[in-house]
Structures are given as structure tokens and as C-alpha cells.
Amino acid sequence: MSGTVDRYFILPRKDIALFQFILEGYEGLATVTTLDPQGATVKVSAMADFSDEVEAIIAAVQKEFFPMGLPARESNFFRSGRHDEE
């Protein structure tokens, strides 16, 4: 598998730095970009080869820090997109 996988999350604004710190602590596995600081929308980008690992880390972070789930915007707490490169 090649390319990148992007996931978009809406977080509580106060938790953006924590979310970024945890995910980027796994050196080279994923990057977190704040797309909208006011709306607290972040993008998590990972190489497709590591998408399973990143999904597992995100699930653990959600369980530990967001046990009630992440806040909804337009009834979706996250949207995803895949960008494959040949």
C-alpha cells in the first residue's frame, strides 16, 4: 500500500496540543496539523502502510482522554479521506 491516509477530527480546543503531542511522540508515524484553531479541527496524516498502527493509537487516545467520544459537528465526529499516490 502506498500514499497517505488523512483523518479529520474536531477536538475540544484545550486538547489539541495534548492530542498532537501524543500522536507525534511516535516519531515518524503520523503528523497532526491544526486546520482551524477556532473550530478545533485537526488533520492526522500517516503513511498508508502505518494506518493500522495510527488507528490503534487514536482508539487508545479516545478511550483514555475522550471516553464520551469526540464532539460532533454536523453529526459526524470525524471525516476521513484517502490520498493514494502511484
Write down the domain tally.
1
Derived structural class: alpha+beta
How would you name the oligomeric state of the polypeptide chains in this document? single chain
Strand content: 25-35%
Q: Just give the CATH class.
A: Alpha Beta
Largest sheet: 4 strands, antiparallel
Contiguous uncertain segments of 5+ residues = 72-86
Quantity of strands, as a count? 4
How does CATH name the architecture? Answer: 2-Layer Sandwich
Widest beta sheet: strand line-up: 2-3-1-4
User: What is the tally of helical segments?
Assistant: 2
Termini Cα gap: 10 Å
**Looking at CATH, which topology would you report?**
Ribosomal Protein S8, Chain: A, domain 1
Mean pLDDT equals 76
**Percent range of helical residues:** 25-40%
Tell me the overall shape. globular
